[in-house]
Design brief:
450 residues; mainly alpha; 86% helix
Length: 450
C-alpha cells in the first residue's frame, strides 16, 4: 500500500489528533488538580456564605464578556487564519492576527466601560433577591474585577492562535497560574482580607496568564503588535463570522445568567450550591470536551480548506464515538459517587454535612450532561470550520428557550437540583441537533463536489 493511500493518511491524521488531545488533556489535568485544591481551600474559608454568593455573581459578568467577545473571535478567526497562512503566506496571516487582536481589545475595553456604567442598573436584576448590603458588595467586587476581562481576552486570543500552529501543551497548562493565585490568597490572605483576597488573586492570576501567553506567541512568530491593516478579504470573512458566533455566545451565556438568577430566587446559598456542584463536572468537561475541541480545530479547518469531505466524515464519526465511550463511564461515576466526592472535597471548616446533602444531588443532575456535551463538541467544531455559524446561533436560541422552560418546571419539584437537571436535558438536545446538522452539511458538500 502506498505511503499516500487514504488509509495511511487517515491513520496519520487520527494519530496527530490523538496526540494533541492527550497533550491538552494532560496539561488540563494539572490545571484542574490545582483548581480542585483551590476549591477545597476556598470552600473551607468561605463555604456557602453571602460573601461567596456576591463574589460569584460579581465574577459572572466578566466571565460572560470574555466568552462573548474573546471566545467568539477565536472561533471566527481560527479557520480563516489557517486558510490565509496556508494559501497566502505568513505576512498576510500576521496582518490578520494584528488587526483582529486590535479589534478584540477595542471591543473588550468598550464592553467593560459600558458594563461599568450600567452596573447599578443590571445588578439588581440578576441578583434581585440579594439583601441591600449583599448587592452593594457584589457591585463593588465587580468594579475591581473588570480588568480581568481585558487580560483574559488577550490570553484567550493568544491561545487560539497557538493552537492553529498545533502548539497545545504550554497554552493548555499556562492557566494554572490563576487557580494557584487564588489558592494562595485564600489560604494566607482570606482570614484577613475576607472575600477581597479572591478578587486580588483573580487580578494577579489574569495578568500572569496574559503575560505568559503573549511571550509564548511572540516566540512562535506572532508578536503582540496591535496595528490596523484595513478591511482585507480575510478580515471581512472573520467579521462576517464573528457576528453570528457572538449572537450565539450571547444566547448561550444568557443561559448561565438565567441559571444563576433563578438560583437566586431559591433559599440563600443556592448560587454557591450550583457553583460547587458544577466544579466536578467542569473538570471532566474541560479535560475531555476542551481537549478534543482544541485538537480538532486546526485539522477540521485544514480539511475544509482543501475540500477533503471524506476525511472530515471519518474524523466526525470516529471522535464522536471515542469521546462518548470515554465520557459516559465518568458521568456514571460522578452520579453514583456524588455524595462521597462532595464530602471529601468540601466538607471541612465552614462547609458542614448539611451543605454536602444539598450539593450532592445537584452534582448528580449536572453529571447527566457530560457524555452528550463532550461529544457535541466534535460536530460543533466541524460546523464552525464549514463557516455555518448561523446553525450554531439557531441551536443557541433553542437551548435558551429550553433552559428557561425546564428551569421553571423542574425547580418547582427539585429546587436547585432542578436547574442542574434542566442544563443536562438541553445538553442532550444540543448533541442530537448538532450531529444531524453536521451530517447534512457534509452530505450537501459531498453532493456539490461529486
Amino acid at each position: 500500500m502506498s505511503a499516500g493511500s487514504p488509509s495511511i493518511v487517515f491513520a496519520a491524521t487520527h494519530r496527530r489528533i490523538l496526540s494533541a488531545t492527550a497533550a491538552v488533556a494532560a496539561s488540563g489535568l494539572i490545571v484542574k488538580i490545582v483548581a480542585t485544591l483551590k476549591e477545597f481551600v476556598v470552600a473551607g474559608v468561605y463555604a456557602r456564605s453571602d460573601a461567596m454568593d456576591a463574589f460569584l455573581i460579581a465574577f459572572l459578568i466578566p466571565g460572560l464578556l470574555i466568552n462573548l467577545i474573546a471566545e467568539s473571535m477565536n472561533q471566527a478567526l481560527a479557520p480563516t487564519l489557517i486558510r490565509v497562512r496556508e494559501t497566502q503566506g505568513q505576512k498576510d496571516a500576521l496582518e490578520l492576527w494584528s488587526s483582529s487582536m486590535l479589534f478584540v481589545c477595542v471591543l473588550l475595553g468598550a464592553a467593560s466601560l459600558v458594563m461599568g456604567v450600567w452596573a447599578p442598573a443590571f445588578f439588581p436584576l440578576i441578583a434581585a433577591h440579594f439583601p441591600a448590603a449583599k448587592l452593594t458588595l457584589a457591585i463593588h467586587l465587580f468594579y475591581v474585577l473588570l480588568p480581568v476581562v481585558f487580560l483574559s481576552g488577550i490570553a484567550s486570543q493568544s491561545t487560539a492562535v497557538l493552537n492553529t500552529l498545533e502548539h497545545f501543551t504550554l497554552p493548555a497548562i499556562a492557566p494554572v497560574v490563576m487557580p494557584l493565585a487564588t489558592l494562595l490568597a485564600a489560604s494566607f490572605l482570606g482570614p484577613r482580607l475576607g472575600i477581597w483576597a479572591l478578587v486580588y488573586a483573580s487580578l494577579a492570576g489574569a495578568f500572569a496568564h496574559a503575560a505568559c501567553m503573549v511571550a509564548l506567541l511572540h516566540r512562535h512568530g506572532y508578536p503582540f503588535f496591535l496595528s490596523w491593516h484595513g478591511w482585507s478579504e480575510p478580515l471581512r470573512e472573520v467579521a462576517g463570522q464573528f457576528g453570528p458566533v457572538l449572537l450565539s455566545s450571547i444566547v448561550a451565556s444568557a443561559g448561565l445568567l438565567v441559571d444563576q438568577s433563578m438560583a437566586g430566587l431559591l433559599p440563600a446559598g443556592s448560587v454557591s450550591t450550583l457553583a460547587y456542584a458544577g466544579r466536578f463536572v467542569g473538570v471532566v468537561v474541560t479535560l475531555l470536551a476542551g481537549a478534543v475541541s482544541s485538537a480538532l480545530t486546526p485539522f477540521f479547518s485544514s480539511m475544509v480548506a482543501v475540500r477533503d469531505w471524506r476525511q472530515c466524515r471519518s474524523i466526525l464519526r470516529a471522535w464522536t464515538l471515542r469521546i462518548s465511550l470515554i465520557s459516559a463511564p465518568l458521568a456514571v461515576l460522578l452520579m453514583v459517587g456524588s455524595r462521597t466526592l462532595v464530602r471529601l472535597a468540601f466538607q471541612h471548616g465552614s462547609f458542614a454535612a448539611h451543605d454536602t446533602d444539598v450539593v450532592a444531588p445537584v452534582l448528580a443532575m449536572y453529571a447527566l450532561q457530560i457524555p452528550f456535551f463532550a461529544a457535541s463538541r466534535v460536530p460543533y467544531r466541524l460546523i464552525l470550520a464549514l463557516r455555518r455559524t448561523d446553525i450554531i446561533f439557531v441551536c443557541g436560541l433553542l437551548n435558551l428557550g429550553m433552559d428557561i422552560v425546564l428551569n421553571l418546571v423542574l425547580m418547582r419539584f427539585f429546587g436547585v437540583a432542578g436547574i442542574a437537571l434542566a442544563t443536562s436535558l438541553w445538553s442532550i438536545g444540543t448533541f442530537f441537533f448538532l450531529s444531524i446538522a453536521a451530517h447534512r452539511l457534509l452530505c450537501a458538500r459531498e453532493g456539490a463536489t461529486g
